[in-house]
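Re: Re: token formats

Sure, here are both.
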Amino acid sequence: MMNDADNKRLRLRVRFDYRGEAKQGKLFSRMRMGEEIAEEVREQRAILLRNIPIQGVYVEDINANGEVYVVSDEASGREIAYAPVEFTLEADTIEDVIPLLLRDEFRKVEVMSPAEVLLDKHEVERIIYKINEELRTYRLYLEKRLNDR
């Protein structure tokens, strides 16, 4: 039997596509190496998400069987491989999953349950604040990376 708290938990399917790009080599081997790098990154990130606790988020299932795909980067003209992975998650609140949904590799989210999510004005304010906080942290990270070059 589900209690009131269980009814409020979010169940989500989130897809991330992890990037793999070879640095040198012939065109064919670069594509192949990029695919291998993308697969390695996917495996490492899936293990991290499975084993590092995120407050309010429980990883129910990980599907890393998606086929690696290659696209041409319009800016550089190089081939870039992406390895998709789907995570089925349970979360206490929307705020708990925002850091995951603002990652560069985020591609898609499906709310599996509940069928309807009602937010009061304070919850909306907290969500907006959390998004702003995450974006600020990311901007500071990027500024530090640029300044360290």
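Second one below.
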Amino acid sequence: MPGGRASDRAYEALRDEILQWRLAPGTVLGEVEQAARLGVSRTPLREALSRLSAEGLVEAQSGRGLVVSSVDIADVRGLFELREALETAAAALAAERRDEAVFAELAAEFDGAVDLVRAHELEAYYGLVARFDEAIDTSIGNAAFASALRGVRTHLQRIRRLAQDDPARLERAAAEHRLIAEAIRDGDSDLARHATAVHLHASLRHILEATAS
């Protein structure tokens, strides 16, 4: 397997495991063990670890080498401030530049997302949310903007897992996403911006309440 493809495969596998908490914060990522586990050589593994380090998902720890980085709930407010600034602007731009059919389909899917939550098909639900984010990124047509959004979403995805999967909150979130998708579909920038802000405020409140000691 060419080094580049092996590196990409290792990166995607490790990133997914970190975001899904299958590799918990503090887990040591020894080169020999991880290379053997993932079926790649150490050179592509190092490339993958370097990318994860740049994203803040992996960090060097004295005496232990590279480990999965810690998650500090104290940082969540700051992350949400940044996310709100970016996501509300992105939703407004998407409403101006959207493919109407794409967001019409997404709005229809969110209308049925409650069934996914009630059936405990949470990976399908989160997959729908990811496709919605990707559609917004595609619509705004700004690579630097989309890269900044992905960076913030990555860290908040880990924090969201701390809050657990509360079905009642997910049902409300599905309705909030549907409203945003409908606003973008209709080209209503103001509503898209406002609905996104409401959704993010509700998400922050839920995370803070769920992780309160």
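The two ends are 48 Å apart (CA to CA). The chain has two domains: 3-68, 73-210.
- S.
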